[in-house]
Design brief:
Blueprint: H1 2-6, H2 34-59, H3 73-81, E1 88-90, H4 96-101, H5 108-112, H6 117-122, H7 137-151, E2 157-162, H8 169-181, E3 185-191, E4 194-195, E5 198-199, H9 200-203, E6 219-224, H10 228-243, E7 253-258, H11 277-284, H12 288-298, H13 304-326, H14 345-361, H15 363-366
Length: about 375
């Protein structure tokens, strides 16, 4: 199957569903069963509501700077559902939906509250620590997948990054290494049209991001990232190709998921300064939640009553996650805990100085703002 799905030109965008939820390419509708289809929609809806709640928490001063995923649920949920649970996900900082599809450990919210324990918890669901520096996680993903290949594991590394990361040296180094050593890596470029305030047309002169894979000796395919079904099918095929499960030799694959970021780059950003609201509204007509809901209604798998029940359970779960995260008291000493496996003398000196300040002035004084 992988050979057929991936055998298309980089500008031949794979799409299973129209914006109205009608099937436009039947071969791209995954054969996963009714229950899995509804589960995908449920997780997409969870991700959207989780996103809205965390933005609200940030505005209330209960959360740090946060990056919104709204508009990108289709690519995040669709791609993660297509993976084996043993595959490791490497992601930038916006792919919260990947965590939702993996069960969303409640500790994850603690990361956005400034506690490193949130990064540690996601390792239990085979998600690499969250990355903030643009593109620097790509070489790590390739290194991990190369190690998996040398061990003989049939596991893939699936690395998410934004279109802006393709301008970083780390991206090109990772792509080149993956091509030369034929690592089981699936590169997922979340092309959401904006790298903060830089539009896609200012990011590259290439017609597509997918075609960049040609220079490194492996296939690139473009998919409608606001179509969860097409994203599932393309990612599944890419994963099969990466680990050699389709009968061929293992090799990396580049997936460009075309989508749109509805909200700000982060809660510290004002997108009204650099983009037109009319553009946002045009992309909202392709909302992945509306598209998936319309498809499921056409299939008689979803109705108002079931959506209401789903929303009730989502609300309860999000409430529980936030309550547990806010009850977790941070330890300021953790600032020094993970810089090195064994603390250096310099780190120890800093820690001792910090503790002396706390003892001398008290935490309340140190937290006061001028």
């Amino acid at each position: 199957m992988a050979r057929d799905v991936l055998d298309r030109d980089p500008d031949d965008q794979a799409r299973a569903l129209s914006p109205d939820g009608d099937i436009v390419e039947p071969d791209l509708v995954p054969d996963v069963g009714d229950e899995a289809m509804v589960a995908m929609y449920r997780d997409m809806r969870f991700a959207r509501q989780f996103d809205e709640r965390l933005i609200s928490l940030q505005r209330q001063g209960r959360l740090g700077t946060y990056s919104s995923l709204a508009g990108q649920e289709g690519a995040q949920i669709g791609s993660t559902y297509a993976l084996s649970d043993d595959d490791t996900i490497f992601y930038q900082y916006r792919e919260h939906g990947a965590l939702v599809a993996r069960g969303l450990p409640w500790e994850y919210v603690c990361y956005w509250m400034g506690q490193e324990m949130g990064n540690a918890a996601i390792a239990d669901v085979n998600v690499f620590p969250l990355n903030i520096s643009i593109g620097s996680h790509l070489p790590h993903a390739v290194g991990w997948s190369w190690a998996a290949k040398r061990r003989g594991d049939e596991r893939a590394a699936v690395v998410h990054f934004g279109d802006g990361a393709t301008s970083e040296g780390d991206f090109h180094e990772a792509m080149n290494f993956a091509g030369v050593f034929e690592t089981p890596t699936v590169f997922v470029c979340n092309n959401n049209q904006w790298a903060i305030s830089v539009p896609r047309e200012r990011q590259t002169a290439s017609e597509t991001f997918a075609q960049k894979a040609d220079a490194y000796g492996f296939d690139g395919v473009q998919v409608d990232g606001m179509d969860p079904l097409a994203t599932y099918t393309v990612t599944e095929a890419a994963r099969e190709r990466a680990v050699g499960a389709d009968g061929g030799d293992p090799e990396p694959v580049f997936v460009e998921a075309v989508q749109y970021r509805f909200g700000a780059h982060t809660t510290a950003d004002d997108p009204d300064v650099y983009r037109d609201e009319a553009e946002v509204e045009r992309w909202r007509e392709r909302d992945p939640l509306d598209r998936m809901e319309a498809f499921l209604r056409h299939c008689d798998l979803l109705d108002d009553e079931r959506i209401e029940s789903i929303d009730e359970r989502i609300g309860e779960r999000i409430d529980e996650i936030i309550e547990r995260a806010e009850a977790e008291a941070p330890d300021p000493a953790d600032l020094f805990a993970d810089a090195y496996a064994e603390p250096t003398a310099n780190v120890e000196d800093q820690r001792e100085y910090f503790e002396a300040l706390r003892e001398r002035h008290g935490d309340a004084t140190l937290l006061e703002s001028e």
